[in-house]
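QA checklist item 7 of 12: single-chain prediction sanity check.
[x] sequence parsed
[x] length recorded as 615
[x] structure emitted
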Amino acid sequence: MSIGAVFSLTKFPRFQFLHQGTFLYNFAAPSLLCNCNYNNNVAIVVTTAPSSVVNPNRSVSTQAKPPKSASDNLDDALVSFNRMLKSRSIPSIYSLNRVLGSIVKMGHYQNVLSLIKQLHLQGVPVDAYTINIGINCYCHLNRVYFGFSLLGSLFKRGYEPNVVTFTTLIKGLFAQDKYSEAKNLFTKLVREKQIEPDVVTYGTVINGLCKSGNTKIAVELLRSMETLNFEADVYCYSMIIDSLCKDRMISDAKTLLVEITKKGISPDVVTYTSLIHGLCNFGQWKEVTELLREMVDRNVSPNVHTFNIVVDAFCKEGMVKEAEDVLQVMIKRGEFPTVVTYSALMDGYCLQGRMEEAQKIFDSMVNKGLQPDIISYNSLINGYCKKKRIDEAMYFFKEVSRKGLNHDIITYNTMVHGLFENGKCDAARELFSEMLAAGGQSPNLCTYRILIDGFCKNQQVAEALSMFQAMKNSEICYDIDCFNILIDGTSKAGSLEIARELFNEVFSKGLKPDVYTYNVMIGGLCGKGLMDEAKELLTKMEEKGCFPDHFTYNLIVQGYLKRSETDEAIVLLEKMLAMGFSAHASTISLLVDLLTRSRQDPTLLNMIQKLVPRT
């Protein structure tokens, strides 16, 4: 069910759900708690009311929240529920709600809806809390509109939806990526004073806005809370700080942290960890250290997630020694490293090609009783592939299955790329076929790029073109990089006509060629001695707003020099120097060779003198 909705709510026992002026739901007074099943994505509403009538003036908020159930698993909870229903006396809805609440906490939402249906079939009167449980379950099952349909039952039984009800529905809308509808509903409810939002409501909306990338609106909501003298809690501030960091607004995040401390709100480990993560992404290590020190001074202990972020950031920056130091501090503070910690450290060593150290970390993790995950194996496989130790990479690739883990698309992509880099095209093709046959993973854009590039670099252009066609036949949206690889590959293989066709296809497919696209095409033309066409393409790329780089000029200059067309080469070299580009060593080598053969041509000698100081 896809609905772009505008909500119309009143204080009367009637709920209208509007879409483009049409009533999609219209629950008048007789409607009841619905017994909703899934039937072609439509909520089937049972409209027969039980005989019991409750106080029509009582709102949802007057119903006390049942305490936690003692049930610790689903079977126990179901047995308890069925026992109460089969008892001679009518079971208390309070007791039944208690069991339903415990099952909700276990995450068995469909079971809860089935039990509520069972209550209805047996004529057990339900209350507002039961209906709220049903709404919550539908929201968790990503059926938020079925949750809205239950509002009619609240009205039927004399209840009015309160802040808890609507907070649940707003959270459900956000969970289904219906950000605009969630925001509009919240705005309408507040504007028409249907509810008085509490800190949970504000937190739900701020969280949804931040996750949807609407950080600016979230900040505005926070400021509006302050103007209403409604104090946000550390949870709200932490979410916004985290979102600011993800939006690379690190300065604003730091300012907000200072602001909340001045207000007397104590940042917690989540607040600090979010900001530390942002600082790590910007490589602001001094401030990371200061913030960690501030945490300790405020008696906020960094947790394993905090340490993992710092370890991972150091490793990605090649600062493995610093990462090891953080690991030691982590252990001394009583935080035990996890698989995530060791995998990050292992990846740091792999990125540096230090496979022996990476292997030691892997073995240490296993010896401590930790089970490596697919990320751990992917790091090792990638490291060994980059070191061209393909047999060891394949050993760990096969060990993934032996350990009961499943290869993900990164595992396959890494291994296929490693095989191509080692010239094992047949093995790469076979592994790709195995992946398709296994059915667990579908090739993505990166997979096809690797395949096309691998075949091109191993002079198997026909295979590359076949893979490109297979990708076009799939639902994968190809990009300019795929064309770049193929244009380069076909040009170098001497198939300039195919390269031309691919280049023209870029425009017909609505893609925008980048400087690399033009460079590989110009390189192909120069390789065939088609200098007029290459120069014409240089002019066209400038007209289309794609500006040449140093590779572009060096390619064309070298093309002219190889044909001993020194005048054209000198003109382009002068233009290249005026734009601040330098000549490549191969370009200068051609100039020197031409100077030798031309008996010290003064024009060439003068140009070489201009170029050499810039190299």
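[x] summary fact logged: The chain has 32 helices and five strands.
[ ] second reviewer sign-off
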